[in-house]
Amino acid sequence: MTTMTIAKAINEGLRATLKNNPKALLMGEDIGALGGVYRVTEGLKKEFGADRVVDTPLAEAGIIGTAIGLALRGYHPICEIQFDGFVFPGFNQITTQLAKIHARSAGQLSTPVVIRIPYGGGIGSIEHHSESPEALFAHTAGLRIISPSNAHDAYWMIQQAAACPDPVIVFEPKRRYWQKGEINTDDPGLDPFQARVIHPGTDATIVVYGPLVPVALAAADAAEEDGHSVEVIDLRSISPMDFETVSTSVEKTGRLIVAHEAPTFGGVGGEIAARISERCFYALESPVLRVGGFHMPYPVARVEEHYLPDVDRLLEALDRALAY
Amino acid sequence: MAERRRAAAARVKEPAAPPEAQTTRAFPADEPPEQLLGYYADMVLIRKFELSADQMYKRAKIGGYCHLNLGEEAIVVGLMAALLPTDYLFTNYRDHGYALMRGLEPGRVMAELFGKSTGVSKGRGGSMHMFDVGVRLLGGYGIVGGQLPPATGAALALTYRGAPGPDAEVVMCQLGDGTTNIGAFHESLNLAAVWHLPIVYVVVNNRLGMGTTVEAAAGEPELYKRGSSYRIPGERVDGTDVLAVRNGARRALDRARLKREPALLEVMCYRLRGHSVVDPARYRSSADVETAQAADPVPLLRQSLIAAGLLDEAEAQRFEADADARVAAAVAFADASPDPSPSQLFDYAYATPVPNAPHALPGEPVVVLP
């Protein structure tokens, strides 16, 4: 057991990957000499050299596209996208090539590329630097999408992503980069594509992932003071989605609230609501409720706290669910 | 702005003036006759294959879209004659001839067009997506410009594996004239330049991006010059001359192989048909179509070989009959091949099994009621 921040945990996970897999390499804008805007790759270029930690020009389609080409020739590139909103120049390569070459070539070729994207708000920045675009990628078959919420998962999930034969996008909760946690460096404990029950309860279930996990835990604690027992599930994997764990919980609690920073419209929460309504129709005591961002561009810094889901909004949703 | 556009459009109504129409071309003395005849046989095979694909499309044997190499036979054969078996090839969606010339059985290529399970990609790629790892064909790509960054990455991978030299592996990335206007072209060339990658970008300039002329679309319509802002040398060759294409490709490939530097090769040609099989190309003037037909590389090589005394009419007909037979066999094979099974619908979506994939086909119950 060792304690470190999420950023450091990813750094250590990347270090372990580079050590264990000679075919793994990192690519991104200013990830080498600078160590990345969030210093997640700090020290790795010095340790592994410029060929394994590649500083690229500002060219997301070029970064992701060349990573695909490297993967076609047997390498395991791990790309850093500097901020969530910066992934869009590379969106074409991700959705039209990265996700589909395996299917298109009838399995002759695989593209084991990892794309790391610091995402989400709460850092006083604006659009392009605070967005949560995970649903845009979850809609594309061929991609796997995960989001760690704590140091232990961050350390292991980046390594598990790097070992996966499929392309994996890792959405990293940037406002939690400095959140410390314990890491068991001997055992990941869980497959990266499984959800984890992180707070047991009996009256309602809250499903969250990434940066909202601490918010949901705080809401569960507050609800407990009001006499409500809330089960919190850290979804961890957005695609594929672990409906088993969620539906097992909802069969028990009868109520489900899904929360994410991304706008609820057309979002991941809608998919969970639909699936759980199909699977748990007879167990549900109330409609599945969603708490999330609004259908608007990410707001300016001074008012972002009104946009981001917080404990109060989760508790309001809980009250509504329990009122049925 | 609109006025400027109209003025520009007026200026470039017709595609660039063609070279003088030639009836025959002389061959260098050191060119082995059997090699020249081999190139001709290959060009005839591509011609016959593509004419057959056109027919099969019109008979609804081929679905979707189908882009033919008609008019580009000398380019395909010349480029593939220069590319070594150890090299890697990425192409755009006009890829049938390349697959054939990399040595894939015409039957497997036709079956891929038909969408049959015996196709190059088991019917999953279709006309635009020929993949065969064995012959190092790393894909036809249906999205314009989609192949450039991956091809550039494959070239980066080669730099990790070996030193430059006569045996070094290199990447050839074929693209069309319209692709040189896309961002991925410029990002890729820039990366290839700063990383000194062993890659040759081949621009097949058939003068039309669908129906838009190069002059109306490109700020620098002499496309071989577009590498200059990345200090990538460019060369333009006559794409109706198989030897000119092969020799130009060899020069570019040698640079990549020996010096580990990228190169840009522009090959000029005419598209004999529409952009795809369904395009009647009404935007072309009859003069332009006549010019294109006059520059048809297949009869040009035929006449040249006859004029040089390397081929006679009877032999030429035998070449054509051979190609006809191979293509007919390919069509028969494709026609008789089974469709992919619906039970394989979800195969290859992921490289590893995915839990929770909704393996319910339309009509099947998604939820089993208690």
Task: Give a quick rundown of the structure.
The complex is a heterodimer of chains A (324) and B (370). With 324 residues, chain A is of the alpha/beta class.
Q: Can you give a write-up of this model?
A:
The complex is a heterodimer of chains A (324) and B (370). By secondary structure, chain A is an alpha/beta fold. Chain A folds into two domains: 2-183, Thiamin diphosphate (ThDP)-binding fold, Pyr/PP domains (Rossmann fold, 3-Layer(aba) Sandwich), CATH 3.40.50.970; 196-323, Rossmann fold, CATH 3.40.50.920. Chain A is 35% helix and 20% strand. In chain A, the strands form three sheets. A seven-stranded mixed β-sheet of chain A has the order 3-2-4-5-7-6-12, with helices on both faces. A five-stranded mixed β-sheet of chain A has the order 9-11-10-13-14, with helices on both faces. Chain A has a two-stranded antiparallel ribbon with strand order 1-8. In chain A, helix 7 (151-162) links the parallel strand 6 and strand 7 (168-173). In chain A, helix 1 (6-20) runs parallel beside helix 7. The mean pLDDT of chain A is 97. Chain B is α/β, with parallel strands linked by helices and 370 residues long. The longest helix of chain B is centred in the N-terminal third of the chain and has 26 residues, at 33-58. In chain B, the strands form two sheets. Chain B has a six-stranded parallel β-sheet with strand order 2-1-3-4-8-7, sandwiched between helices. Chain B has a two-stranded antiparallel ribbon with strand order 5-6. Chain B has helices at 2-11, 33-58, 73-82, 96-101, 106-114, 148-161, 183-194, 214-217, 242-259, 286-294, 297-307, 313-336, and strands at residues 88-91, 137-140, 171-176, 199-205, 208-209, 212-213, 234-238, 263-268. The interface between A and B is large, with 51 and 47 residues.
